[in-house]
Amino acid sequence: MCPKIQPRRRGLRIAAWSLVTVLLAAAGLVGVVLWQNSYAMDEQRVSIRNGGHTLNGVLATPKDGRKHHGLVVYVHGDGPVGATHDDGYKPMWEANAKAGYASLSWDKPGVAGAPGNWLDQSMDDRADEAVAAIAWARARPDIDGDRIGLWGASQAGWVLPKIAAKTPVSFVIAVSPAINWLQQGRYNLLSELRADNASAARTDAAIATSNARLRLLERRATFEEYVRAMGDDAKGMTADRWGFISKNFTADATQDLHALRGIPVLLTLAGHDINVDTADTERVYREVLDAGGALTVKRYPDASHSLLKQSIEQSERRTSLTALFSPRSLFADGFLDDQRQFLKAPGRAGQAALSVAEGVL
């Protein structure tokens, strides 16, 4: 009987050690995830009064032992964005913390239980919201009111200069900012069609649909009128979204950018941006701001509109795995460090970076 029992016991031992190995590997992976998603900063939930509403925010502060920090105020792009942008902001907040800066962000109205509806907002409403947050921050003893600046991406390009016109800011970091709403929309439409290898007939039809939508916007058509006029092409549009577009489709940052003259501005642009015409954005920023001598332009050839590495963003699976195991690696090479260096001395560092950028371009 013994010869029959021994192989079974040996098999059980092998299975047990295999299970132990798997559990140890799993524990190691969990440890890596926890370590990679731990950041060198402290975070606290805060409430900010904005008129009759409350902004639900997050304040991330450096762990440097100091009691007084500069502040980077985050202005979101389009969409229902929460305070941490699904933790996507945290690598940037950590870079800010290493430069001695706190970071402040909040849920858009209607997001994560916040009161209101972000689709009811104009760009001026969004600017007023940020001004209220800055006033709140200036009243805090742990924030240096003379070192408060802005960070904003994409749609925030229409909001950042409006904020600077309403309250003093020390610097601006503009990430893939748009200039003109309608021009950006057409650029995005054509870029997506090209990326999809669309036929000439499909391209012409898409342009015709876009033109018809613009005519409805120009005559301030109601959502019901829009649905009747567009038929099947109205699918995917909601009444709230139509209202949001109707409020903001005339947005153009060109004149508002004059409010940033003399303020250190870091303009970061992606090499693979299908949302924003980066050449036009850079041209306008240089025309309006270069005279003040405080503009820094940094280009990231391997980046997408969100300044993530295009090679990663193209794959949903790779994006998820990188976000889990190495979130700082999501961003284009140099993007986080460039922002940290800019914050250390926005004026002097900006001029040095600009000289380097001009030598490369």
Strand line-up of the largest beta sheet: 1-2-4-3-5-6-7-8
Q: What is the assigned CATH homologous superfamily of the largest domain?
A: Alpha/Beta hydrolase fold, catalytic domain
CATH arch. level architecture of the largest domain: 3-Layer(aba) Sandwich
Q: Helix amount, in percent?
A: 40-55%
Principal-axes shape call: globular
What string, H for helix and E for strand, traces the elements in order? HEEEHEHEHEHHHHEHEHHHH
* The CATH top-level class label of the largest domain: Alpha Beta
Distance between the termini: 81 Å
Query: Count the helices. How many?
Result: 13
CATH topology of the largest domain: Rossmann fold
Strand percentage: 15-25%
Average predicted local confidence, pLDDT: 89
Gyration radius over CA: 24 Å
User: pLDDT below 50 for ≥5 consecutive residues: which ranges?
Assistant: 1-5, 348-361
Output the structural class. Answer: alpha/beta
Concise overview:
The protein is an alpha/beta fold. It is 47% helix and 18% strand. The chain has helices at 2-36, 90-98, 123-138, 160-166, 181-195, 200-218, 223-230, 239-248, 278-289, 310-313, 316-325, 335-344, 346-360; strands at 41-50, 53-62, 69-75, 101-106, 143-153, 172-175, 265-272, 295-304.
Structure description:
The chain has 361 residues and is an alpha/beta fold. The chain has 3 domains: 1-36; 42-180 and 251-360, 3-Layer(aba) Sandwich (Rossmann fold); 183-248, no CATH class. It has 13 helices and 8 strands. The protein has helices at 2-36, 90-98, 123-138, 160-166, 181-195, 200-218, 223-230, 239-248, 278-289, 310-313, 316-325, 335-344, 346-360, and strands spanning 41-50, 53-62, 69-75, 101-106, 143-153, 172-175, 265-272, 295-304. Strands 1-2-4-3-5-6-7-8 form an 8-stranded mixed beta sheet, with helices on both faces. Strand 1 and strand 2 form a beta hairpin. Helix 3 (123-138) crosses helix 4 (160-166). It is globular, with a radius of gyration of 24 Å. The protein starts with a helix and ends with a helix. 37% of the residues are buried. Residues 1-5 and 348-361 have low confidence and may be disordered.
